[in-house]
Design brief:
The complex is a heterodimer of chains A (90) and B (415). Chain A is of the alpha+beta class. Chain A contains 2 helices and 7 strands, in the order E-E-H-H-E-E-E-E-E. Chain B has 415 residues and is an alpha/beta fold. Classes of the chains: A alpha+beta (90), B alpha/beta (415). At the A-B interface, strand 5 and strand 7 of A face helix 7 of B.
């Protein structure tokens, strides 16, 4: 079993139009590294100098990683990772 | 539109973030052109609504406008509140009486729904802590748009009623505002509906500037030394300051902006004031907000980084108020100025008091407090703290006894 990463619509030009990509990895960092390995065009969108950009929020099965162990959060097999733009609301 | 992080330019469309770095998009204007077309005299000739400042809003003169009568709320010289707080020059910008739904959100919604019509959208919606829900529902009804409103299920009854009455589909979500907000982002991305504070957010947020334009105009085309603004998502405080900068950029105000911007939050949900006080660049989100001030209960504010930066850069400060202090603030404003503000207004008054007492705001300088919502919507918060009315028989004797007027006369002695 792999982990699914949901790609937001405006980023799909860098994922061959795919809404969901299957990846592997034990932590959020490893999962996103594998995503970027498969679709290098997503690298600069998600990371700035190796750090996750401030305006993208990462959720594992509906849970915000900032309330867990951030990029070191463990990701179980079969989990769904969502990348959600942060600039909404208020 | 332009990305606030990398500066990449975008044509106007229903998108709120940069596809390169997820940074927020902001509307840009040609200030030289506006300066050549606009004068104080011209602005003063126009009807007193926020649309007086249309050149500074992202809606063309050939486009339909929703909410033509919004704005132009009173700037009240608040001498009795000033005395109570121990300051000399104080004003209250009173959006508690904004039209049509008694909060500053009428301004942002007016712009967002005008844009929705321009984009030929037929369904609009929002994630809301209440005031926005009221305004979207009312103004969408007036424009004949279908509406989906998503709110935290534990919201004040009055705010839910004041949304449902307009025929909007109200959906209470079992979760925090931030969870509701994330759901709306997912719906907007999938179905392309016009969510005013998601994919229409760059346009929506511009509406907040009109509060700043009106403050400067009502002060006689100049800026106050201090503004105290409540912070939920953190956009309003920035847009008021942007409005001041735009008035200077277009020559409508002659002196550069030196206003110190101060932000107010509730202690039970204080990600931005905490970031300011601890010197952190990016706020730490608050997972479970716990405050009576539900309209400011955004644990993960979209403009948190920008608001904290603005407060620091302008020499202002941020503070937060406990529930007790919020209630005291509401009562103080009501009892000195006759203005019944909602909990966010109580927060702003309470924080202003703290900033004055800690000398962050000098007592002899000019202060404007931004009151953004109406107390009739948050009656639940103070109902139990007010004295029950006395009940008497309708006789003069009972009235005199109750009001102490009878004491001068000897009571009849019962044998």
């Amino acid at each position: 079993m792999a982990i699914k990463v949901q790609i937001p619509t405006p980023m799909r030009d860098q994922s061959d139009g795919k809404a969901e990509v299957e990846v592997n990895g034990e932590t959020v960092q490893a999962v996103l590294d594998d995503l970027v390995r498969q679709y290098p065009g997503l690298g600069s969108k998600l990371f700035d100098n190796g750090k996750i950009r401030p305006f993208v929020n990462v959720f594992i099965d509906e849970e915000d990683i900032r309330y867990l162990d951030e990029m070191e959060t463990k990701v179980a097999d079969g989990a769904t990772v969502a990348l959600i733009p942060a600039v909404a609301g208020g | 539109m332009k990305c606030r992080v990398c500066g990449k330019l975008y044509p106007e469309s229903a998108i709120n973030f940069c596809v390169d770095d997820f940074g927020p998009l902001e509307v840009t204007y040609d200030y030289a052109k506006i300066a050549s077309q606009l004068s104080r005299a011209e602005l003063e000739r126009r009807p007193a609504t926020m649309w007086r400042f249309q050149e500074f809003l992202p809606i063309g003169f050939d486009q339909p406008i929703v909410g033509r009568n919004v704005g132009a709320t009173p700037l009240v010289k608040a001498d009795r509140l000033a005395e109570a707080l121990g300051v000399k020059k104080l004003w209250v910008k009173n959006d508690a009486v904004n039209f049509p739904t008694l909060s500053f959100k009428d301004r942002v919604v007016s712009v967002a729904l005008s844009k929705a019509l321009e984009f030929k959208m037929t369904t609009v919606g929002c994630a809301s802590t209440g005031n926005l829900a009221n305004s979207v529902a009312a103004q969408a009804a007036s424009a004949g748009l279908d509406t989906f409103i998503l709110v935290p299920a534990d919201l004040e009854r009055t705010k839910i009623l004041g949304t449902a009455v307009y025929g909007a589909r109200v959906i209470g979500c079992l979760g925090t505002y931030d969870e509701v907000n994330r759901l709306c982002t997912q719906i907007a991305l999938k179905y392309g509906w016009g969510f005013v504070n998601v994919n229409l957010r760059p346009f929506y947020a511009e509406g907040s500037k009109t509060m700043g334009f009106e403050i400067a105009q009502d002060l006689g085309w100049r800026f106050p030394q201090h503004v105290v603004s409540p912070m939920a998502g953190g956009a309003l405080i920035g847009k008021i300051h942007k409005a001041f900068n735009e008035l200077y950029a277009t020559g409508l105000v002659d002196t550069p902006v030196t206003t110190k911007m101060h932000g107010a939050q509730a202690t039970g949900c204080n990600p931005i004031s905490d970031a300011v006080k601890t010197g952190r660049e990016k706020h730490k989100p608050v997972r479970k907000p716990n405050t009576i001030c539900k309209s400011l209960a955004i644990g993960d504010p979209a403009d948190g980084i920008f608001a904290a930066k603005l407060v620091r850069e302008t020499g202002g400060w941020a503070e937060d108020a406990t529930d007790e202090e919020i209630i005291e603030g509401m009562k103080l404003l009501a009892q000195t100025e006759g203005i019944f503000a909602e909990t966010a207004g109580g927060t702003t008054v309470a924080v202003a008091r703290k900033l004055i007492e800690s000398s962050r705001i000098p007592r002899d300088e000019e202060i404007v407090l931004c009151i953004t919502g109406n107390g009739l919507k948050t009656q639940d918060a103070i109902f139990d703290t007010l004295e029950e009315p006395s009940v008497i028989k309708p006789t003069l004797g009972e009235f005199e006894l109750l009001s102490g007027l009878a004491e001068a006369r000897p009571e009849p002695v019962l044998v």
